[in-house]
Amino acid sequence: MIFHEFIIYDKLMKYNELTSTIKAPLFSRNDLAFSAYKVHDYQLSLWVKKGYLIRLKNGLYAFRREMEKLRAEQIAFLLCQPSYLSLESALAWYGFIPEIVYAFTSVTSRITRTFENPFGRFIYRHVKSELLWGYVEMKVEHGPYLLAEPEKALLDYFYLNMGRINNEDDFKSIRLNPEEMKKTLDRKKFFKYLEAFGVKKMEKLARQCLP
């Protein structure tokens, strides 16, 4: 009996085949797993070098020609999950601080880390998984992202910066806008969330925002 050995050769994907396969502005390595074509890492690196693709992080890419269709907030959500925008980014969003924020700040139950790519600088700070709540889904084209509620954004900030807020001058240096906080914060929700943190030092800081 003669056995015939069949060797299957994977067809290498060309860039135009990538663009016809992937319809979204960005994609992950996993999105290519079930493609009829084989894509090697060196091909992706070459397309990045040629300016066709943007590497957002290892395994996550965006088409440069589609860059304007994406928002950095969406990128922040995709770079590290689970996570949601909070801290300085959310405080600026709600008008609680006057500064222009030059990085996108999020909290995550994963390790503290930072990513940089053409969309900006993305900082993720660790909190325990029990504190990963208090956010809303923001729906935009090509996918949603998560944003802390105003009450949670402020409490996240206090929780992660307690070590450097030790006196009145430290508190004033945050430059919080009391008028915006008074208009926006839900007092009942704010103190309910504060209680869930269970951190005594945060109570004094919280009452300076809503006396």
Structure description:
The radius of gyration is 22 Å and the shape is elongated. Helix 4 packs antiparallel against helix 5 and helix 5 (150-161) runs parallel beside helix 8. With 211 residues, it is an alpha+beta fold. It has helices at 15-21, 41-49, 72-79, 87-93, 150-161, 168-172, 178-184, 187-197, 200-209; strands spanning 26-28, 53-57, 60-63, 83-85, 104-108, 113-117, 120-126, 135-138, 145-148. The termini are far apart. The protein has a 4-stranded mixed sheet with strand order 4-5-7-6, with helices on both faces. The chain folds into 2 domains: 15-69; 72-209, no CATH class. A hairpin with a 6-residue loop joins strand 8 and strand 9.
SSE layout and pairings?
Layout (H helix, E strand, L loop, with lengths): L14 H7 L4 E3 L12 H9 L3 E5 L2 E4 L8 H8 L3 E3 L1 H7 L10 E5 L4 E5 L2 E7 L8 E4 L6 E4 L1 H12 L6 H5 L5 H7 L2 H11 L2 H10 L2
Parallel strand pairs: 5-7
Antiparallel strand pairs: 1-3, 2-3, 4-5, 6-7, 8-9
State the total count of DSSP E strands.
9
Number of domains in the coordinates?
A: 2
Q: What is the residue-averaged pLDDT?
A: 92
The SS-based structural class is alpha+beta
Distance between the termini: 90 Å
Beta-strand portion reads: 15-25%
Strand order of the largest sheet: 4-5-7-6
Give the helix proportion (percent range).
Answer: 25-40%
Biggest sheet overview: 4 strands, mixed
Enumerate the spans where pLDDT stays under 50 for 5 or more consecutive residues: 1-9
Radius of gyration: 22 Å
Compute the number of helices: 9
Order of helices and strands: HEHEEHEHEEEEEHHHHH
Gross morphology: elongated
Quaternary state reads single chain
